[in-house]
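haha ok so turns out i had the wrong file open the whole time. this is the CORRECT one, sorry everyone. sequence first:
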Amino acid sequence: MKLVDNTQQQQLRQIVNNLVKARKEKSLSIEEMAMKTLIRPALLQALEEGRFEDLPEPIFVQGFILRYGDALGLNGSSFAEQFIQISEPPKPKDEIPQKEKKTNIYIPIFFPYVVLLASVGAVLLYMHSISKTYNSVSKKTNSNTDTQQINLGELAVLNNTSIQEETSASVSKPAPSLTPSAKPSSNPQQVQANVKLQGESWLRVIVDDKKVFEGTLEQGTQRTWTGKKRILIRSGNAGAVLFSSNSQKEKILGKQGEIKDFVVTDERE
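then structure:
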């Protein structure tokens, strides 16, 4: 902190001396004052010794003096106000008339109207741009939605056609490893297939010409499917699938790693 002249330094020393005198009368050390005021002892030492150049900006010193006085039971605000008067000396009289001078600037009377019209035009242009952008995005979104719906419809038709063709081919032209159909169900209105996985295997299950499952099942998984006419099961690892239908006993579909189909039908048809 820098003071302008010696007079300011002497006045500040007088304030500090009054505070130091009160501290000594209460038999308080600088360390104790530091704990009371939360000010570092080094800063308090510099303040009391008059080493003002080691102190921070005046605004911080003002706070030091305020807390110092309050910690001693004095009116810290009064000491702080005295410091403000010292640290902010009155400005020279020569500067006052210069600041009071006003620059006369001529503004045409129509200038505010020009600014107003320009502002309104800018707002209208901005709103038009937003509306145009919104309409463009809305049309694009609707177009994408319609295209997506058409694609989904086509995909559903293709999937159903593929499943029906595959099911018909599997039933009419059985593969060499196709296991004979199971006996008719004890329930004349249903056919049932049960699987228990002794190892991991991929399965595809089609019930009454509708694919109801396709995926990999882990060891220990048990599943049951029920239909009205026919159940087709294709296994990617027949040796891991323990199969039973209706009232038949469990049996393994085939060999390990063998791809095999098994069909459960109602033989009354």
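The CA atoms of residues 234 and 261 lie 4 Å apart.
again sry for the mixup
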